[in-house]
Every structure is written in structure tokens, then in C-alpha cells.
Write a structure and sequence with these properties.
heterodimer, A: alpha+beta, Alpha-Beta Plaits, DNA polymerase, domain 1, Dna Ligase, domain 1, 3 domains, 5-stranded mixed sheet, about 20% strand, globular, B: 8-stranded antiparallel sheet, 8-stranded antiparallel sheet, 6 helices
């Protein structure tokens, strides 16, 4: 999207560059970026490149030129693949065995979430130094709204972002790519254009053109089911959506139709919202065969409590309301909730208070009921600093916290199957893609 | 059934038993009081199925019999009758009514069959002992405030009573905690209680007992098993189920290494806490104690209200320390201190603090600090 006469920067020293041909006059770098709207766009998506793998490479320089795959552990899928491994066709979410087949010489490392979230936090702090309007999307990516920061940093948003990724690279040892645009969905798409170490701009004039040929499932909110439906209706690209009017789309696809209509025209009114804290966190699982027996349901509940607890710990949250969910074989969903006296993130505590809820729900269900799904979640979320306060009525609390921390630690280092409580062992196979169905609303 | 009874006698007995009756009842008979008259005695009973109070009073019974009538209504009527009135109570079996007459007032109350009235059986109560009323009052007062209201941990919704031996001396010990504070009070083990099991007496029974024994000077006869407790005095019998649960091993949360000792005049301290906490936010009620050799500065700040400080002279010779507490919890404890001085035994701002009454070794309180 380079054009003659458009203003530009050097991506290494941020010096203004006039001619798109050649190199930076100040530092001689060939990494230049030009765009007519480079000074007026303020919404950015910053996304680290092959984040987990980059962190591992940073910490072990001998891995630098070798294909690195982070994954295995609980899911048996690739969590991240470095760019060398990607050349062989490895990508994240690919089953591990397939990845190994494609790239037999890859170094496979099991994920160390603690380390990654530490780096993620460092990166977030750097982002927040640039603008308070940082909306984290995941551990290694975020939206930034840089409007009004020109005078603060005495630089245009584009130049500020260049400095930001330079700092991330220098201080955290990982590279990141930037997408700069005028709204969130285009910024997100832009950050993917030039990866890794990329910087791509989608201006107001580029948006619709750029979108036209993209597959329709690149729109945020288009999942598998909707994608299938769109394909069946003869819509495979975003451009094709523009041939339908808004009313038709809403009628056919429900409220998401409005989003499809707007996005296909490069319009997205969502703000960068720095406090998109989730309202609840949950974990659920669907059984291979419906279960009616309380004891068996309790056994299925325990690993979910552990998973929920893990998610709360990663997100540094604690919940003060427990919500148990059961779906019967007749697809009737029952939920039971229980307020707790204090916010918790401990699996043991969640389990302890969830069991009576489960027993009541099963008890109250029509005789002979069987269930196809069980879920446990927490609402009324509080920061982790308020979780599980010292309790005079619970002399074993600190011991339980310690044991859970040790288990978490072992799992971080050696994978989730490395250690389990006796209660979890009664279940031989809990391997059915256990992450599936986890929610955050 | 037909009897005549002095209004004040009936009122007092009704007041005692009717307070067991819940205001909202899904089971109609539980809203009623059971009246049973024979041999110059009227026996009144009310129950909520977990707790029953029975009281026997003298009455001029001309015809033995029994009936049940709505407890709160009956009580309200008797309360509104003039002092000194003689109340005539008579059943009209044919109409299923209970007739009340006093002076020119006539009331007719609907009744429910006495067979429906649930009996809370005491069962076999193998342990029996007796406590002076003032002892029991004191034990209840110094522990009741710490009872938890948290439903999920029902085993904390009462006072844990058990026998202990400390340095060769035997005590009856009462413990209550809600997780934030803990009260542990003991009294000499009464004869007969040596083999008592550890039991958790529920909050409602404790509250009712405390009300009933407020004025008496008679000794309270207590009998109990693993599942029931019965207290008896002056013609009143209270029977309650016990909480079926395990009380936490509280000894393990009572710190033993705290080494910083702060001594305050408990009245001066309580008044200052009360003043400074006026500022504390309604939600946290937090107050900060900055302890220095010889002085204590209480302070509170809240975004809405402003700030407050007050300095007190205290006995303290250890290292400086800042620690926060819930002011309401501090006041709950200091109001139970009978001696002049309260002793705070501190460790650090994050660890439980012990509070003792310098005039009473038999009471110990533990308080969890708050972050301030």
C-alpha cells in the first residue's frame, strides 16, 4: 500500500523518510513504511510473533536456527510453532503427531505458561506506558487506541508504535507485529499482513478493497456453523457479503447479520475497551455416554474444577459465585448457583462447594434422569489478590494452597498429566479435547 | 380444656415460647403453640422442628385438655390485655376454636389438631451437668458474636462446646468463629460433664437460651447426647438439635509465636475506635492501628467521607507496627472485656492477632487483620 508522495518512516530509527525507494537516510535501514494516512490512524493491533516459541528461543539461544514447537501437554496439539517450523507446514492447533510428521527435526517443548504470562505482563506494561487504552485480547496481543497521544509522546501514533515494538524486542526479547487502521477489526487483520516483525497499515480507502477477497470466516464472530451456512448461501468472500442488504442479512442470520453487513464495508464501531474483564469463567465437558450416577458425575466434576481453577489462576481472577450446569439427555439445562463467603480460585474449594449443588440438582431432577453435559463456572469475579483470604475456620487452607501451587508448578513444567490427585485418578481417560467448551463471556 | 390464668404469668410464658416460632411458616402447625392443661399446670410448647421450648406455669385448671392456637396472635392478644387481668382459656371442641375471655374482651382463635403438633424428642441424653446462670450467660456473651452466618459452612453456625484439660485443670470450653475472628472461652468443668462429647449448639438455640436465662439466678441443668441438647430451669425446658458437623481444629489457627504485646485501656480504646471508625467506609469498616513504643495512632480514611486519626497512650515496647482491623470486630471483642485492660498480642500485619482480657485468663480472642 505504498504510494508516491505519501509520508513515511524508517522502521528502525523512526526518522521521517521522503522517498519510498531505497533506504533510510539516517540509519541506512531498508525497513521503511509509507502511507497517505500514516499520521491520522490511531487504532492498532499489536501481536507477538510465534509468542511461546519466541520466548523459548530467547531463553535458549541454541534453538535460534532450529524449528521449535511448543505444545503437547494436555491437549496434544501445537500451541505455537516458530517460523522455521511453519515453513514445513506446522501451525498452531495442529495435532502433535501430525506436526512431528511434517517436521521431524523440530525441538518440542512443553508449554511453561507461568513464564509466558510473565513475559505477557511485561509486554502489557510497555503497552500501557504508551496509552491507557489497551485492550488485551490474549496473553500476547492487544488492541491499542492511540488517539490523543501525539502530544504526549511528541510523535504520531505510527512512530509511537514503532518505538513500542522496538522496546518489546529490546526488553522482552520477542518480536511483535503491528496492524494500524481506523477500527479494531481492520487493525487485527492488518497485523497479520506483514508477520513476523511486521508493520502494516490499512487506511480508510484500503479497507473495503482489502476485505473484498478475504474469506468470510475472517470476520470476527463467524465460527464454523455460520461459515457453513454462508458457504451454502454462496457467500465465501467478504466482498460477496456486500451484495446483500442489511435487512436480508439480519433476517437470514440474526443479529450477527448487522455485523456482517458493517464489517464487509470495513466498518466497526467497537471501542478499544481497556477493562474487558470477563463476567464469568467456566469449564464444561460433554460425555461420550450420558451419565445418571451421582458418584460418576462427581468424578467428572473434579477435573473441571481443576481446569476452572487453572483458568482463574492464569487470568489472575477469583470467583465469589459458583454456578453448576447440567444438561440432561433431553437437552434440558439446569443451573444451580451458590454464593461464597469469599472469592476463591482453589480447585478444592470449588469442588467442595460444587458437590452439594450437584447432589441437589441430581436429586431434584426427574427420577432416572441422565446427563450429557456438566459444567462448573464462577461469576462475581474479583482480583486474585482477594482470593482465598486467610481463614480462622480453615486451619488447612494454607496447606491446601501450597499443595495446589506445587501441583500447578509441576504441571507447568511437565504437562498436565504429570501429577494428579487421587480423586482425579479414578478416571482413566479424560482426553476428549478437554478444552473444548470452555467459556469466557 | 378450661382454665383461668393470671395475664402476666401467661404473657411471660408465651413470650418465651413464641419467639421460637418463625414468622413465615410453610407448615401451618409450626405457627401454633401447644397448650396442655392438667393438675393446676398449663404447659406451653412451641417448636420449629429443630428447637422446642416448653414452659410450665401455674393455672387454675377446671378441665384438663389440650389444644393448639396461633402463637403470635395468642401472644399479641395477651400482651394487649390490661395488666392484672385474669384470662379464661377454653376449648370449643365442636367448633374447633379456642376461646379467650378477659374482662369484656372475647376472642375466638382457630385451632389445629394436637396430634399434628410435632414432638421434638430429646431421646437418651447420657451427659448431664449443671451451670450457674451467670456462668452460662458470660460464656454465651463472650462467644456468640463470633458465630458465623455463612450457610455454606453450617458447622460454623453455632458454638462448639467441649471438655478440655489444660495443665491438669479441666474446663468446659466454648468456641465460635466466622473465619475472621474467633472467640474461645472456658469455665471450670462442671461435675458430670467429664465425658461429654464435643457438640455444636446452633445459633438459634443459643440466642433463645440467652434470652430465657437473662433474669434467672437458678442453676441451669444441661443434658446432652451427640445429637440433642436440653437446658432446663425454672419450669422452662429448651430442647434443640445439635449441628451435625465437625468443628474445625481451631487450636491450629491460634498463633503461638506472636511476641509484640500492646496493652490498652479497653474503654478508652473502644471509644476511640468507635469515633475514628465513623469515617470508615460502610463496606470495609477498616481502621488502621499504628503502634509505636508508648503510643497508638488509630486512623481511618475513606474516599467518600474523609479521614480521621486519634492517638492513645498505650503500653508497648516492641518494634513499630502498622496493622488494620475491621473496627466492628474490634468493638465486638472490646465490649466483652470485663477488666480494665485489653492485651493485643501481635506478630505482623498479615498474621492473626490474639486479644486477651487482662482481668480474665479464661477468654481468648483471635482476630484476622485486614489489608489497609
Amino acid at each position: 500500500m505504498t504510494e508516491d508522495g505519501a509520508p513515511g518512516f524508517c522502521r528502525d530509527c523512526t526518522a521521517p523518510v521522503l522517498s519510498p525507494a531505497g533506504r533510510c537516510g539516517d540509519c541506512g535501514s531498508p525497513r521503511l513504511i509509507f502511507h497517505r494516512e500514516i499520521h491520522s490512524l490511531v487504532i492498532a493491533h499489536v501481536d507477538c510473533d510465534a509468542f511461546y516459541a519466541s520466548v523459548e528461543k530467547r531463553d535458549d539461544p541454541s534453538l535460534r536456527d532450529r524449528p521449535v514447537i511448543v505444545g503437547g501437554g494436555q491437549r496434544g496439539v501445537v500451541s505455537a510453532a516458530c517460523y522455521i517450523a511453519r515453513i514445513k507446514g506446522v501451525h498452531s492447533a495442529m495435532p502433535m503427531f501430525q506436526a512431528r510428521k511434517l517436521c521431524p527435526d523440530a525441538v518440542v517443548i512443553s508449554p511453561n505458561m507461568k513464564k509466558y504470562s510473565e513475559v505477557g505482563r511485561q509486554i502489557r506494561t510497555l503497552m500501557q506506558a504508551v496509552t491507557p487504552l489497551v485492550e488485551p485480547v490474549s496473553i500476547d496481543e492487544a488492541f491499542l487506541d492511540l488517539s490523543g497521544t501525539e502530544r504526549l509522546h511528541n510523535a504520531s501514533p505510527a512512530a509511537t508504535l514503532i518505538k513500542l515494538v522496538q522496546r518489546i524486542e529490546a526488553e522482552c526479547g520477542v518480536t511483535a507485529s503491528v496492524g494500524l487502521s481506523y477500527n479494531k477489526s481492520l487493525a487485527k487483520l492488518a497485523s497479520d499482513i506483514d508477520k513476523p516483525r511486521g508493520f502494516a497499515i490499512l487506511g480508510r480507502d484500503d479497507g473495503p478493497t482489502f476485505l473484498a477477497d478475504l474469506p468470510v470466516n475472517r470476520i470476527w464472530g463467524v465460527g464454523k456453523a455460520l461459515h457453513r451456512k454462508l458457504l451454502a448461501d454462496g457467500i465465501s468472500t467478504i466482498g460477496q457479503l456486500r451484495t446483500r442488504d442489511e435487512a436480508t442479512l439480519v433476517r437470514r442470520y440474526g443479529s450477527i447479520g448487522r455485523r456482517l453487513y458493517n464489517f464487509s464495508r470495513g466498518e466497526d464501531q467497537r471501542r478499544v475497551n481497556p477493562s474487558t474483564t470477563p463476567k464469568n469463567v467456566s469449564a464444561e465437558t460433554t460425555f461420550f455416554q450420558d451419565i445418571g450416577d451421582l458418584e460418576e458425575l462427581k468424578q467428572r466434576l473434579w477435573p473441571l474444577c481443576e481446569r476452572l481453577s487453572g483458568r482463574l489462576k492464569t487470568k489472575e481472577l477469583a470467583g465469589q459465585t459458583l454456578v453448576l450446569k447440567l444438561k440432561s439427555s433431553k437437552f434440558r439445562t439446569t443451573t444451580r448457583s451458590q454464593g461464597l463467603a469469599w472469592p476463591t480460585q482453589l480447585a478444592e474449594t470449588i469442588y467442595q462447594f460444587a458437590v452439594p449443588l450437584l447432589a441437589n440438582a441430581v436429586n431434584d431432577a426427574p427420577a432416572g434422569s441422565r446427563f450429557r453435559l456438566i459444567g462448573i463456572g464462577v461469576a462475581t469475579l474479583k482480583p486474585a489478590s482477594e482470593a482465598d483470604p486467610p481463614d480462622l475456620a480453615d486451619p488447612d487452607l494454607s496447606q491446601r494452597k501450597r499443595v495446589e501451587n506445587i501441583i500447578d508448578d509441576v504441571r507447568d513444567r511437565m504437562g498436565s498429566n504429570a501429577i494428579a490427585r487421587g480423586r482425579g485418578l479414578a478416571l482413566p481417560a479424560q482426553r476428549k479435547s478437554p478444552r473444548k467448551g470452555d467459556h469466557r463471556h | 380444656m378450661k382454665l383461668t390464668i393470671e395475664r402476666s404469668t401467661l404473657l411471660k410464658a408465651l413470650a418465651h415460647v413464641q419467639s421460637v416460632v418463625e414468622r413465615r411458616n410453610t407448615i401451618p402447625i409450626l405457627a401454633n403453640v401447644l397448650l396442655d392443661a392438667s393438675d393446676g399446670t398449663l404447659t406451653l410448647t412451641a417448636t420449629d422442628m429443630d428447637l422446642a421450648i416448653t414452659e410450665k406455669v401455674a393455672a387454675d385448671v377446671s378441665q384438663s385438655g389440650a389444644s393448639t392456637a396461633p402463637a403470635h396472635t395468642f401472644y399479641e392478644i395477651v400482651r394487649k390485655l390490661p395488666d392484672g387481668a385474669q384470662v379464661e382459656v377454653e376449648t370449643d371442641a365442636a367448633a374447633g376454636q379456642l376461646l379467650l375471655r378477659a374482662g369484656r374482651s372475647r376472642f375466638s382463635l382457630s385451632t389445629l389438631p394436637i396430634e399434628d403438633f410435632p414432638v421434638l424428642s430429646g431421646g437418651d441424653l447420657p451427659v448431664a451437668f449443671s451451670l450457674p446462670a451467670d456462668e452460662l450467660r458470660s460464656v454465651i456473651d463472650r462467644t456468640k458474636f463470633a458465630i458465623s452466618t455463612e450457610e455454606t459452612r453450617y458447622y460454623l453456625n453455632g458454638i462448639y462446646l467441649h471438655a478440655v484439660e489444660v495443665d491438669g485443670e479441666k474446663f468446659l470450653r466454648a468456641v465460635a468463629t466466622d473465619g475472621h475472628r474467633l472467640a474461645r472461652v472456658e469455665t471450670a468443668l462442671p461435675k458430670g460433664a467429664e465425658n461429654m462429647p464435643g457438640v455444636i449448639a446452633p445459633r438459634k438455640a443459643i440466642t433463645e437460651v440467652r434470652k430465657l436465662i437473662d433474669e434467672t439466678t437458678s442453676p441451669i441443668d444441661i443434658a446432652l447426647s451427640d445429637t440433642r441438647i436440653r437446658l432446663e430451669f425454672d419450669g422452662v425446658v429448651l430442647t434443640s438439635k445439635l449441628i451435625d458437623g465437625t468443628f474445625p481444629d481451631y487450636e491450629r489457627v491460634i498463633p503461638t509465636d506472636n511476641d509484640k504485646i500492646l496493652v490498652v485501656d479497653s474503654n478508652v480504646f473502644a471509644a476511640a475506635v468507635d469515633r475514628v471508625s465513623t469515617i470508615s467506609s460502610e463496606k470495609s469498616r477498616s481502621i488502621k492501628l499504628a503502634v509505636n513504643p508508648g503510643s497508638l495512632t488509630l486512623s481511618a480514611t475513606s474516599a467518600e467521607n474523609g479521614s480521621a486519626t486519634e492517638e492513645l497512650e498505650v503500653g508497648y515496647t516492641d518494634a513499630e507496627l502498622e496493622i488494620g482491623f475491621n473496627s466492628r470486630y474490634l468493638l465486638d471483642i472490646t465490649s466483652q472485656i470485663e477488666g480494665d485492660e485489653a492485651q493485643f498480642i501481635l506478630a505482623d500485619p498479615a498474621s492473626p492477632t490474639i486479644v486477651r482480657d487482662t482481668g480474665d485468663d479464661r477468654a481468648l480472642y483471635v482476630l484476622m487483620p485486614m489489608r489497609v
